[in-house]
Amino acid sequence: MTEHDPGRPRHHGHQGHEQLDQLGADDTTFAQSGEPSDVEHAHGPESGADASRGARSDNSHGGHEHDAIGRGHGGHGGHGMSGINTMAVSATLHCLTGCAIGEILGLMLGTAVGLSNGWTIMLAVTLAFLFGYALSTLPLLKTGLGLGAALSVVLAADTLSIATMELVDNLVMAVIPGAMDAGLVNSIFWIGMMIALTAAFFAAYPVNRYLLQRGKGHALTHEYHQSSAPADGMRRFIPSLATPTLVAAITAFMLGGLVVSVADELTSDDRSETGSGHAASQLLPPP
Questions:
Q1: What angle do CA 154, 158, 160 make, to 5 degrees?
Q2: Strand (E) positions, 135-204?
Q3: What is the pTM of this model?
């Protein structure tokens, strides 16, 4: 009865006490040294430390990701501002081409016919609005928009910009001495026109930028250009007048007028000097 069963391990209870004593010793060592015991490396404490390190890593990664997103948003904001500035320049140049054609033509006609300054300004402003609206309406008609719908879009998009340009342009021309009364073959006329149109551009640029930021102005016509289908039928014959081409043509025309005016003035001075010399020689007594 007292014989030990050979199939059962000896000193089972003693071994269990030894394992418990070892765990206690390891815990005491960890408490004293601050380092995890071998048992803790093999079991739960390691996973807890890993979880803590993982949480710190996740927090760190989350912070870096947030910083990256913030920098990304800042980058996109910079690109957005740059895009608005570019669109504002393009919109202002587009309006300026129509205004310049109307202004030059109106002042040329008023000067040639001999109209008073008031009627000349009125004619120039009328033609400026006419050509400004026309240059904005033609591309919309080419996209398939009806005439009435295109005009309503253009009136809402361009009126404030053109009005600003006309106010500044004619004010500058009226302030420059002799610019309104100068003939077509007069350098003051062309120099004054260049100064006036440049001032009109810088005055209308912030107006167009303000409208674009609020989805108005040329933003109304821009969406039609983006979604335009290929022109067919009679729309194919509507001319596509690129703004850079018009700007280059207007600049060349004004420079040509200035060159002709300067050449005529130099020739007139030569003729007057020659005439004065000839008159003086006739007054001298014969030898």
A1: 140
A2: none
A3: 0.64
Q: Which of 30, 61, 62 is nearest to 43 (CA)?
A: 30
Tell me the residue ranges of DSSP E strands in 157-253: none
CA dihedral 185, 188, 194, 200 (to 10 degrees): -120
Output the tens digit of pLDDT for each of the chain's 287 residues: 444 444 444 444 444 444 444 444 444 444 444 444 444 444 444 444 444 444 444 444 444 333 333 333 334 445 567 888 998 999 999 999 999 999 999 988 988 888 888 898 999 999 999 999 999 999 888 888 889 999 999 999 899 999 999 999 999 998 999 888 887 889 999 999 999 999 999 999 999 999 999 888 877 776 666 655 666 777 778 888 899 999 999 999 999 999 999 999 898 876 666 655 555 555 555 55
The span from the CA of 43 to the CA of 23, in Å, is 12
Helix, strand, coil shares of the chain as percentages rounded to 5?
Answer: 80, 0, 20
Work out the number of other CB atoms within 10 angstroms of the CB of residue 33.
Answer: 9
**Non-local CB neighbours of 1 within 8 Å, separated by 6+ positions:** none
- Give the Cα separation of 142 and 37 in Å (integer): 82
Secondary structure string (H, E, C) spanning 78-93:
HHHHHHHHHHHHHHHH
Q: Are 128 and 102 in contact (CB under 8 A)?
A: yes
Cα(162)–Cα(150) distance, integer angstroms: 17
Within 10 Å of residue 164's Cβ, how many Cβ atoms? Answer: 20
